[in-house]
Amino acid sequence: MTSIDTTAITVELPDAFDPRWNRLLGIQVDGRRITIDPAEYFFRFESSTWLVADWDLVKAQLLDVDETTESAVEQLALDFIKNHGESTSDAACVLATVYGVYSYLFREEHLAGLGLPQITVGHLRMLREAATLMALNKVELDGHISNVGPCWFFPAATSVVFDLDDETGGMLDEVYHGGWFNEHRRIESIKAHAALGGRLVHGCQSVPDQSGGVVAPYGASMANFRDDLAEFKAGWIEQVYAHRVTAAE
Fold first, then answer.
1. Dmax of the chain from CA atoms?
2. What does the alpha-carbon distance between residue 84 and residue 212 come to, in Å, rounded to a whole number?
3. Which residues does 128 contact at the CB level (< 8 Å), separation at least 6?
4. pTM for the full model?
5. What one-character DSSP code corresponds to residue 88?
6. What are the angstrom distances between the C-alpha of 19 and each of 34, 35, 71, 157, 183?
7. Between these two residues, 114 and 34, which has the higher pLDDT value?
8. 65 Cβ partners below 8 Å, 6+ apart?
């Protein structure tokens, strides 16, 4: 039997995270320094390796490449991952890569053209932080979900950490998995997620379903992914909401 490394994960990122992440079990935020205890943080932690590609290389060699009639953007991303993807057990490296990806995808210049005036710079920060932690989740090629943490359930986690009401949490979730609601943003997302070894996929049809998202490898079985998710999500969503802070507290 293969032993899973549950050593504490520590990383220092370019920007400070909201200290309210400390409300969740197994995570400690101290400014730019984040420490995660896998045994406490994850609901399921069966894999301590992730597929990544160098973010600087993605920026230099993929982001500005246009698809053609012979090579769709998905094929460009898949080829890049095949050529440059590497397996790593360094979770800190994964988190640093991920933060670069989401700092790019959720950058302030998009706000003017988003068509959602209620989304603010502060909301972009929330998206960057939650999506960064989400990327430690993992789906295998056979569709089995091997790693699940609180940020799988995006509206639940953001409501606990950022004191959001259900409507605002749901709106953020839509922006997160909606690719900013247009094709240009979707293409940008596909290219950027090559740094994380796959594409962003979701188990949910809409916000109320709250079935979350994960960066899954190209070729992963979505049927098995859906079935695995359906078996566990309700109980784990309840555990996330249990950390919600009420006015009385």
1. 60
2. 27
3. 99, 102, 103, 106
4. 0.90
5. E
6. 10, 12, 44, 14, 34
7. 34
8. 76, 191
pLDDT for residue 92: 96
* 76 three-state secondary structure: helix
Whole-number pLDDT of residue 2? 47
Residue 20's closest CA among 34, 9, 10, 8?
34
* Token pair of 10 as six digits: 């520590």
Express each pLDDT in 118-144 by its tens digit. 889 999 999 999 999 999 999 999 999
Q: How far apart are CA 15 and CA 3, in angstroms?
A: 33
Q: For residues 149-176, b (16+ Cβ closer than 10 Å) or e, as one string?
A: bbbbbbbbbbbbbbebeeebbbbbbbbb
22 touches 29 (CB < 8 A): yes
The tokens describing 163, both together, are: 């004191």
CA distance 214 to 212: 7
115 exposure class (CB count in 10 Å sphere: 0-12, 13-18, 19+): exposed
Residue 87, strand partner residues: 51
Pick the residue with more confidence: 144 or 247? 144
pLDDT tens profile 11-36: 999 999 999 999 999 999 999 999 99
